[in-house]
Design brief:
alpha+beta, Rossmann fold, D-amino Acid Aminotransferase, Chain A, domain 1, 3 domains, 6-stranded antiparallel sheet, 4-stranded mixed sheet, 17 strands, 25% strand, globular, binds adenosine-5'-diphosphate, binds magnesium ion
Length: 372
């Protein structure tokens, strides 16, 4: 029997999306193909402590959110003499775990913005998902829009203000927005998610309060033209060429002005989903093409969910944002869209791990210095 591939399932994390990660990771562990893979669960608690968790004990808990057992041994990443990645217990004599590939089932800042990916690169690890650059750009709403626009994707008009600009001359920030945009406008922190700090402004008098709140979350804020939009999402899986799923549509309930934090997480009836989205065949293939173009333009790897606005007036698709580590429970949009497109959740997990190993091998084979 060949040895199983040892998959470190990283979960938790210090971001605001810690709880989402616990749910995603519970699903991944439950559906990981145990005939090929051996899980090495590694939790990161809210204080940033890394711990080696016991897969059997986690399985027994059978919880919807994967627990973090506080007494589990603390570990750090280490590299053995032959370059193998190790989960090494801190101070203790307990055995070290060799790791073949890391599945970062974590979301948000420091988890999907390139920081963790850089750490894993330094440790020489194979890992699921995008590398440092695509992760960082994917998280940065302004950079992502600039690059996809260069690749030909329509993007709603917007202006950008920094906290310094705003502190120095708030009237100039408002004037620049008013000169370029019509109401309503959406105010959003550049590097957040989950609609945190996002505001819909219908009167310019309300811009200041919206900016004050958005600047509490980031030093860079986008002021964006509101689109009378249907919200369409596509899941993209890496490949040559990349594969785009059936698109889905998210409809925030009429009680919500937009797909806000409340609609996403606090209101059980906050939104309904159409999968597949009710699009014409042409619209479906257009949005799939746009999603693949965005994935390629940002040099993503592994997976990404690409979110669009379909303008009810003009009928055009606008790129809104890309998520390089989207929510990943068995009922999250990314896995559901892949499933509806013929790739069930367990096979999706397997494919993502294979892609991570392929990408790692490809990069390892590159020369690192001049060899004539
Ligand atoms: N330009 C816009 N036009 C219409 N609705 C928008 C616009 N920008 C954001 N929204 C609404 O706000 C939500 C959150 O904005 P988004 O840019 O997706 O940020 P997040 O990363 O927090 O999800 C969107 O899903 C949509 O409902
Ligand atoms: Mg969004």
């Amino acid at each position: 029997m060949t040895e199983k591939t040892r998959v470190a399932v990283l979960y938790g994390g210090k971001s605001g999306e810690h709880e989402v990660s616990l749910k995603s990771a519970a699903s991944v562990l439950r559906h990981l193909d145990r005939s090929r893979f051996e899980p090495v669960p590694i939790s990161i608690d809210k204080q940033g402590r890394w711990q080696r968790q016991d897969a059997r004990r986690l399985a027994e808990s059978n919880a919807e959110s994967l627990p973090i057992f506080a007494e589990a041994p603390e570990i750090r990443l280490a590299i053995s003499g032959n370059g193998t990645l190790l989960a090494a217990p801190v101070g203790g004599a307990a055995t070290q775990d060799a790791i073949d590939v890391v599945f970062p089932v974590i979301h948000g800042p420091l988890c999907e913005d390139g920081a963790m990916q850089g750490l894993l690169d330094l440790a020489g690890a194979a890992y699921v998902g995008s590398g440092v650059m695509a992760s960082a750009i994917g998280m940065h709403k302004d950079m992502a829009k600039r690059l996809v626009a260069l690749a030909g994707l329509p993007v709603a008009p917007y202006t950008v203000a920094t906290k310094r600009d705003y502190a120095r001359d708030p009237a100039a920030v408002a004037a620049a927005a008013q000169a370029k945009l019509a109401l309503p406008a959406f105010i959003k922190p550049c590097n957040m998610g989950s609609s945190v700090g996002v505001h819909k402004v219908k009167r310019w008098e309300d811009l200041g309060a919206a900016l004050d709140d958005a600047f509490a979350y980031d030093t860079r804020v986008l002021i964006e033209q509101g689109v009378d939009a249907r919200e369409i999402e596509v899941a993209v899986l890496d490949g040559d060429p990349p594969f785009a799923s059936m698109a889905s549509e998210l409809n925030a309930g009429p009680q919500h002005e937009f797909y806000s934090y409340e609609a996403k997480y606090l209101d059980a009836d906050g939104a309904t989903v159409d999968l597949p989205a009710k699009l014409t065949a042409e619209q479906m293939s257009r949005v799939q093409e746009l999603a693949k173009t965005a994935f390629t333009a940002l040099e993503c790897s592994g997976l990404a969910r690409v979110d669009f606005f379909l303008d009810r007036q003009g009928g055009e698709f606008y790129f809104n944002e890309i998520n390089t580590l989207p929510g990943f429970t068995a009922i999250s949009m990314y896995p559901k869209m892949m499933e509806a497109s013929g790739l069930p959740y367990p096979a999706l997990i397997t494919r993502l791990i294979e892609l991570a190993l392929e990408r790692h091998a490809e990069r390892r084979a590159l020369k690192t210095d001049y060899q004539g």
